[in-house]
Amino acid sequence: MSGNDELLDRLREVNPVPEPESTFVSPAPVRRQRSRLAFVGSAIAVAAVVLLAVVALNPGEDSEGVIAAAAATAADQPSIEIKPDQFAYRAEDWYQPSIPGVVEDATPEQLTIEGSDEDLAPRAGVREVWFSPLNRGSVKGDDPQAAGWPPCTAADYIVDYAIDEYCWADFGGPDGDNYLFEAPPEIQHAIEESTHREGPTFWEFSPDIAKLGTGPEKIDAAVTDLGRQLENQHPTVSTLGEEGTMIFVEPTEPNDSAFKLRAVADLLANPLAPPEVRAALFQYAGGIAGVETSSDASDPKGRDGASISITSTPADPDPVIVSGLPQRIEDPLDQYKQGGYRIDLTDLTIRTEIVFDPETSDMLSERIELVAADDPLLGPWLEREGAPQTIYSRTFEPITVVSSAGEQPSDG
Predict the structure, then answer these.
(1) Which domain does 244 fall in, by range?
(2) pTM above 0.90?
(3) 224-237 mean pLDDT
(4) In a domain, 29, yes or no
């Protein structure tokens, strides 16, 4: 039994999850089918667009352009037709580069690295997701040994801290065992109990995302909550190699705008989100501080689309690299405070972008690029490879309804 399984078993014993109630609503005569009914579709679209004026929190200059068009298109799309015992299947291609840079020594005055000009293969794979209206979904990632990904380097960890992503060589790809992407009911229930939240917590895979509604306060709370989860708001220690070199980071700054945009992307990518919720999420994205839009964008696969993006520097305190420590120490944060080489993340400029199909409002991709870097680990790599460089991306394939978790469309 894995550590995750043991944790879930303990949570089930001490704090059982209430029996989930089905959020599935059988199609009614007024519900739009795949073949749109002109009168009903137009009425719903008009009502949703009127509602969007209320949802906008801090609309930017483009709220009448790309954002408004995306919101109106989303409001006019039909809901996915799925039965309670069916699953919405989607494949996602994800990508991370492997950035060379082995730490030889780290003191408060100097960082000594080796192999900075090495050419390492990237980490890339496929994540398969089965969304369920009854919270029985599943996620399948890659086997790291079979994939043959290179080990994570110090540079990989630094850039992953900057965007609060995992280095997937350590975790085996973004699969269902990673709670950053999927929160089992036991975890969600424990969070709700400990924080005295009212109502459900909305995650990327939430079966009850329809309950999010279109109210500005509820959408802001959901996006902020999910953004904080993506920001990984807790101290982190990572060991590099076998020489006792460690990286420490202690995040304290919540509500980074880039993570709000990523949270919106997660919620928009949920195929169970009804049209009015997706429309309100697009409109909310237009009010995030610093967003820019383009009607002439493309995703990593070369598919044309429109984009919403934010260019920023990381808000979290700088990670510290410390050499010569034992592999296991009782108080790593105390050791961290004793000093090491501090990487200045304000020297990094990062662009976060989501690309969607303007004809359907469907999500095409999420991409994070390193635009500028002036540090001994990432600077030489970016200068050699040329800016900007993608440091994380995932592309979304169209949704297909299947009859069971694990089934692929080609299975028949």
Answers:
(1) 38-411
(2) no
(3) 71
(4) no
